[in-house]
Design a protein that fits this description.
alpha+beta, Phosphorylase Kinase, domain 1, Aminoglycoside 3'-phosphotransferase, Chain: A, domain 2, 2 domains, four-stranded antiparallel sheet, two-stranded antiparallel ribbon, globular, Aminoglycoside phosphotransferase domain-containing protein, Aminoglycoside_PTrfase, Kinase-like_dom_sf
């Protein structure tokens, strides 16, 4: 249906301007019931969107600042691949103190989602020790030597407790104000080992040397696999030590 689906949020719902940052989706500033919001149109399945929207509602109810799904006129949280969410003001983290606040927010996310079910169709990093595919990952498309390096990095995570990880904590996906830290763009969120979220600038999460090395290697391997084979993925694979 495309953007015609926006009409399901009311007769006056309208697109305003395209927003940057979306890769897998078409993301726009929209107006719904006279207020600014964000509309995201993509090709994810209903099961995937149900997982994401229920997660965001759970986190919002627990006090985390996240984009909250705005229901359609008949109460659905998404329609025909379109999700409409609250717009969050703020800027990216800039100082070590900012990144320390981000780390605290991520740890709260991890605490609130222990035991959360896996996103439909996704795999965790340790699942990929045995599986070949999962959503955007296809290890069969990577060179065998690269797969071996990635799996060696992920093997160091075996036995860790899992939870929801945001999966893409670059500065563009963080909206900070003096009073709170908001995480946006949950496209890469899935269930995995929490340390994958905690490889932050200047080790803002305060991981010890061993924990930081394990997390950094596993994170580089994940990003290489999920983006393969663009230039960024090749660069990230180059950061994963040979077996």
């Amino acid at each position: 249906m495309g953007w015609e689906a926006l009409g399901q949020w009311g007769a006056d719902a309208a697109r305003v301007e395209r927003l940057t940052g979306g890769v897998a989706n078409d993301v726009w500033s929209v107006r719904v019931d006279g207020r600014r919001a964000v509309g995201r149109l993509g090709t994810r399945s209903d099961a995937d969107l149900a997982w994401e929207t229920e997660l965001l509602r759970h986190l919002d109810s627990a006090g985390l600042t996240v984009p909250v799904p705005i229901p359609t006129s008949d109460g659905r949280l998404f329609a025909d691949g379109l999700v409409v969410m609250t717009y969050l003001e703020g800027g990216p983290p800039e100082t070590p103190a900012d990144w320390s606040r981000v780390a605290d927010t991520l740890r709260e996310l991890h605490r609130l989602t222990r035991g959360w079910p896996q996103r439909p169709g996704w795999r965790s990093s340790t699942d990929l020790l045995h599986a070949e595919t999962g959503t955007k990952i296809d290890l069969g498309a990577m060179p065998a030597e690269g797969v071996a390096r990635c799996r060696a990095a992920w093997a160091r995570l075996v036995g860790r407790r899992t939870c929801v990880v945001h999966g893409d904590t670059n500065p563009g996906n963080i909206r900070m104000t003096a009073s709170r830290v908001a995480l946006i763009d949950w496209d890469e969120a899935h269930v995995d080992v929490p340390d994958l979220d905690l490889v932050l600038p200047d080790n803002a999460a305060g991981l010890d040397d061993g924990a930081y090395d394990i997390a950094a290697q596993a994170s580089a391997a994940w990003e290489a696999a999920v983006c393969w084979d663009d230039d960024y993925a090749v660069k990230r694979l180059g950061e994963v030590r040979p077996v």
